[in-house]
UniProtKB/TrEMBL annotation:
This is Glycine/D-amino acid oxidase-like deaminating enzyme. GO terms for biological process: D-alanine catabolic process. GO terms for cellular component: cytoplasm; plasma membrane. InterPro entries: FAD-dep_OxRdtase (IPR006076), FAD/NAD-bd_sf (IPR036188). Coiled coil: none annotated. Gene3D superfamilies: D-Amino Acid Oxidase, subunit A, domain 2, FAD/NAD(P)-binding domain.
Length: 416
């Protein structure tokens, strides 16, 4: 079967790879000049089964309202984006009661753990260089109140079978000696052995090379402009460079998936959540961080990618705005200097970036046929766990398209 996969980020590219390995002919279509140019380009680079929580909670509505009073909130929905988000908000609120949240968190953890294991196995089997670090992740605190919140989460995660535990300040410093110079001393941390660091863009590019070596086709600078339909089937997609015919089509367009489906008069609640990252060089005489992780009080992540440091924060629901105002990076720089004074060479080149997480109302991807379209499939809505869930999602999509019974668990099908 010839399959056209639309979207050359990590989710679309892993899907194309799994479908190729199953014997299908693939044409992978990307609107940018190169693959992994959008959400997968410079994300946090963390695979986090031990921190895979839905953003839904009984307190979430109050927290969103409070964010409008905060001068620099980590998570916020802009008022100008509010009216466009009503369908998404309705679905989100329906999943905020405690029982719904418990179910979501349990499913997210199981999926994230399995996908992280599969991601590590894939990189090793293909010999991919993705700066993989398997030492686990450390989430440290400078306040007892924050540590107490993670203690409750660690207890729950450990009951699910992960090596997740609260550790003392001394244990934090043994894992991360660079925190000894932190301006506000750590009081403890949350360590998860199963969490990982890896570069999503590197994996996407190298899987793309593997696809080409296997005789598959990649078309960059092809922007989706519409669909050619015949009854309940898609015959071709229209792009700025002509039509592309196939037997089946996969939409893996991240936050732009909803826009594509609107052309077919199909509503799909997906909301872009904007994050910002900086990729930094270290002073030559300074050793890299021994373990990656997060300042859990400030919600700033740190990932060592070879000799580079990726620093990431924020989740702002601000439509499709891709501007990078300088003030948005003050939190990143402050977090670097507060946690690791003297680590970063601020005179060297600093790469600043923003990306849009494709947030579904429940944090789970949709892996299913599009209603009313027999040969159009979705693999979208992974939210902030797109990198964590990409490989398992690709396998589930492959199995669904190949007719394998029970290929996806309840909760990942069309539910909108």
């Amino acid at each position: 079967m010839k399959i056209c996969v639309l979207g050359g980020g990590v989710v679309g590219t892993t899907a194309a790879w799994m479908l190729s390995e199953a014997g299908h002919d693939i044409v992978l279509v990307e609107q940018s000049k190169r693959m992994a140019a959008a959400t997968s380009h410079a994300n946090a680079s963390l695979l986090t089964p031990g921190h895979s929580m839905a953003w839904n909670s009984p307190r979430a509505p109050i927290d969103f309202l409070k964010s409008w009073l905060d001068r620099d909130p980590v998570m916020k929905m802009r008022l100008k984006s509010l009216w466009k988000s009503f369908p998404w908000i309705w679905h989100f609120l329906r999943r905020c009661p405690p029982q719904a949240v418990e179910r979501l968190n349990g499913l997210l953890l199981r999926l994230s753990l399995e996908s992280t294991e599969k991601t590590e196995a894939l990189t090793q089997s293909l010999g991919l260089d993705v700066s993989l670090d398997s030492k686990g992740l450390l989430y440290w605190h400078g306040s007892e109140a924050g540590l107490e919140q993670d203690r409750k989460h660690a207890d729950w995660v450990s009951r699910q079978g992960l090596d997740a535990r609260i550790i003392s300040a001394d244990e934090v410093l043994r894992l991360q000696p660079a925190l000894a110079d932190r301006r506000n001393p750590v009081v403890g941390g949350y360590y998860v052995r199963e969490d990982r660091v890896a570069d999503a863009r590197a994996l996407t590019h190298q899987l793309g090379i593997q696809l080409l070596l296997h005789g598959q086709e990649i078309l960059c600078e092809h922007e989706l402009q519409g669909f050619v339909k015949e009854g309940g089937r898609i015959c071709a997609v229209r792009t700025n460079r002509g039509e592309i015919e196939a037997d089946a089509f996969v939409l893996a367009l991240g936050p732009w998936t909803g826009q594509a489906l609107r052309q077919l008069k199909v509503g799909f609640p997906i909301n872009p959540a904007k994050g910002y990252s900086m990729t930094l060089s270290l002073h030559e005489e300074v050793a890299p961080l021994q373990i990656s992780g997060m300042d859990a009080d400030e919600y700033v992540t740190f990932a060592m990618l070879g000799d580079r440091l990726r620093v990431t924060s924020y989740a702002h629901f601000d439509g499709f705005d891709l501007s990078t105002p300088e003030g948005r990076f003050a939190r990143h720089r402050r977090a670097v200097d507060d946690n690791f004074p003297g680590l970063v060479d601020w005179t060297a080149e600093t790469k600043k970036w923003c990306g849009l997480r494709p947030m579904s109302p429940d944090g789970l991807p949709t892996i299913d046929r599009v209603p009313g379209h027999d040969n159009l499939w979705l693999n979208a809505g992974h939210g902030y766990l797109g990198w964590t869930l990409a490989v398992l999602s690709a396998e589930m999509l492959r199995d669904r398209m190949d007719g394998v019974t029970g290929a996806t668990p309840d909760g990942l099908g069309w539910r909108w």
